[in-house]
Amino acid sequence: MKILGLETSCDETAAAVVENGRKVCSNAIYSQIEKHRPYGGVVPEIASRNHVKKLPEILRQALEEAHETFESVDALAVTYGPGLASSLLIGFSAAKALALRLNKPLIGVNHHEGHLHSVFMAEDAPPPEEAFPMLALLVSGGDSSLVLMSEPGQYERIGTTIDDAAGEALDKAAAILNLGYPGGPIIQKTAEGGNPSAIRFPRGLDQPDRGKWAYKYDRDLCFSFSGLKTALLTHVKKLPAPPEGKYLQDLCASYQEAVCDALSSRVVRALDRLEIKSFACAGGVSLNKVLRAKLSDISKKTGIPLLLAPPSLCTDNAAMIAGAAYGKYMHNPANSTPQDVNPNLLLSGWR
Ligand code: KG4
User: Which candidate, 331, 341, 310, 340, places its Cα nearest to that of 16?
Assistant: First the structure.
């Protein structure tokens, strides 16, 4: 089954064709980063206008690269939340119109579900059925969560951030240091060759606190990054001049280390408590080399296999949406079409 997926939840305009949930036939993306860079973050109005402008061209590119046409694909899939309302609406309206015109099924996909599915789209990934129960660390620009997946389509969030997301912490750090946007890749690059132990930044919720709760989650499995960001701001304000050279490298390496430590230590705690077959990391921050190295070490030490998405599928893309749509549709074709977008959509699963 070939599914044409559309993704416009934030600032990437993307379309892709995926066969049977795993084979990526095309993956066309227009990244709007350059449009938003002058503002240091995504401007919703600019994002939606650019989706309108670029989506037709990106759809054509996705079909051409896959040697498909609108008529030859079997179904359409689209992100219907969470994300920016005005951005979601562009992809959703286009997908709805196409599905009506072509008389093909329309499958609505939760953006986070797409990220989680992306780890099964690596060439060497096991079939999903063999990986469950699986623990997933979901780390994107707007979310940091630990998700327990007991079978395909079943998601239980067992930990979350109580303030900023990991990607947001990196983006804000780069803004404080005047390094540009998006912060994650810039901090990683600037940190190269720096000493990660030069400055001891706080790791939020570091002390094990068994039995305590943050919202409805076990506090031990939650994250907090706002104190880390404030620590950097305070540190920088005390410096006699803006940091540069080796000092800037050390600062970025130490900050990146604090973010990655906080993430990997929660994974270790969760793995200690759960009986699981594999663990995964998905979302834009999963591209981070230091985080990947820490998670690989955990995998080596525990013998629990680690699943990571191919780099091209870590940041926002439509292949993960078309991929995730397949299982959902096969499970219940009648119940996969959403009525509308939902900017605050929660990860609820379809089983
Ligand atoms: O998953 P994503 O593309 O968008 C959302 O769904 O939110 O993630 C974007 C986030 C940004 O915060 C960006 O700074 C971060 O991923 N990111 C990275 C790296 N590449 C992107 N963070 C750390 N290291 C990277 N190499």
Answer: 310
Calpha distance 224→243 (Å, rounded): 25
Atom in ligand 1 nearest the alpha carbon of residue 166: 12
Ligand 1, residue 139: give the atom nearest the CA.
1
Residue type, 288: N
For residue 108, what are the contacts with CB-CB under 8 A and spacing of at least 6? 77, 78, 79, 80, 336, 337, 338
Nearest to residue 140, comparing CAs of 287, 336, 312?
Answer: 287
pTM tops 0.85: yes
Helix axes 289-302, 245-273, angle to 10 degrees: 30
Could you tell me where the DSSP H helices lie in 66-108?
85-102
DSSP for 182-245, please give it.
SHHHHHHHHHTT--TTSS----TT-S--TT-EETTEEGGG-B--HHHHHHHHHHHHHSSS---H
The b/e string for 321-332 (b: 16+ C-beta within 10 A; e otherwise) is bbbbbbbbbeee
Structure tokens at 166: 């990991």
pLDDT reported for residue 208 = 74
Ligand 1 atom 10 nearest Cα: 141
Q: What confidence tens digit (pLDDT) does each residue in 48-92 have?
A: 999 999 999 999 999 999 999 999 999 999 999 999 999 999 999
Q: Atom 3 of ligand 1 has which residue's CA nearest to it?
A: 315
The reply to whether ligand 1 has any atom less than 6 angstroms from the CB of 108 is no
Q: Taking a C-beta distance cutoff of 8 angstroms, is the pair 204, 257 a contact?
A: no
Q: How many CB atoms lie within 10 A of CB 207?
A: 7
Low-confidence ranges of the chain (pLDDT < 50): none
CA atoms of 59 and 29, how far apart (whole Å) = 9
Say how many Å lie between the CA of residue 170 and the centre of ligand 1. 9
Q: Is there a contact between 256 and 188 (Cβ–Cβ < 8 Å)?
A: yes
- Provide the sign of the torsion angle of the four alpha carbons 213, 280, 77, 85, taken in this order: positive
